[in-house]
Amino acid sequence: MASHTALLIIDYTNDFVADKGALSCGLTGQKLAPHIVELANQFVKNDDWVILPTDVHTPNDPYHPETKLFPPHNVRGTWGREFYGDVAKWYDQNKNRDKVYMYDKTRYSAFAGTDLDLRMRERHVDTLHLVGVCTDICVLHTAVDAYNLNYNLVIHEKGVAALSPEGQTWALDHFKHVLGATVVD
C-alpha cells in the first residue's frame, strides 16, 4: 500500500448488517467482517488511516430525503447504529489510535455535507480503499464523489455487499467501467 492511503469502512452497522437490522443486507453483509478486520489491521500496521463513515439519522425527519424511502435507521444512540460483530470489536480495540476514527455522515456519500475531503487532503491521502455496505448505495455514492474529487479508488470485492445480487453486480461493474476503480478480491 502507498503511504497516502485510507481505508473507508462504510456503514458497517447493525441496522445494515444484523439479521434484525432495519435495512439489513443480511448474511452477505455479515460474511464481510473477517475481510474488513484483516484489511483494517493491515492499514493500522502500515500506519495508514482507517475511517468509519457512518450514517446517522433522526427518526421521521421531514427534511431528509431518505425519510420517504426507508424506515428509520442508524438513529444516534441506538443499537442499530452500533458497529456490527467483529468490526465492532476491532473498532473498540483501535478507536484510541490517532489514525482510526468514526465519521458521521447524513447522506449516502461520505463526502456529502462533511469535511471528509478536507481532512483527507490535509493528510495527503490520494488513494481510498472502500469496504462496507451497501455496495450499490452508500459505497457507490462515496465512490462517485471520490472519483469526482480525483481520488484513486480501490474497491475490495470481498469487503462490500448490496441488498441484492443484481445491485452488487451492477455496482462492481460501474466501479470498474465508469469510475476507473481498481476492484480487487
UniProtKB/TrEMBL annotation:
Pfam family of the protein (one): Isochorismatase
Keyword terms: Hydrolase
Gene3D superfamilies for the chain: Isochorismatase-like (3.40.50.850)
Stretches assigned to the Isochorismatase-like domain: 5-180
A GO MF label: hydrolase activity
Sequence similarity: Belongs to the isochorismatase family.
This protein's name: Cysteine hydrolase family protein
Species name: Lentilactobacillus raoultii
